[in-house]
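Handoff note, outgoing to incoming analyst
You'll be picking up this chain. Sequence as last confirmed:
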Amino acid sequence: MQSLIVGLLLAAVSGVSVIAFRHPNGYARLFPYLLLAVTGLFVCVTVWHIAVELTWDRVVPYLDADLHRTAKVSKNELAAPYEWLSVAYLGVMAFLWVNLKLPPFLQHTDGDGKNKNNK
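Most recent structure output, in case you need it:
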């Protein structure tokens, strides 16, 4: 399962990069929707994480001491690894932004080099 997820992730990254470099204007139009989708997913995970933590805080006073450890393990299985997901969210946002800015930058620098050689 892990290799399937990694393969899908690499395919998605490659596909987004190919679109960004081959069709920079199209990617610029697609960029806000990608940001919205990634941010919406992150908001959903954030709401899930907050719901799990708030529920845990409300349930703990009613737990027997014997069941506390088992319940904590179950809560940890439900909770998202939020720190890692936050870092991943920032990484995806940076990746999308770099794909937006890098192709025009490279075209601009290539254009300057051609003008200097032609003079």
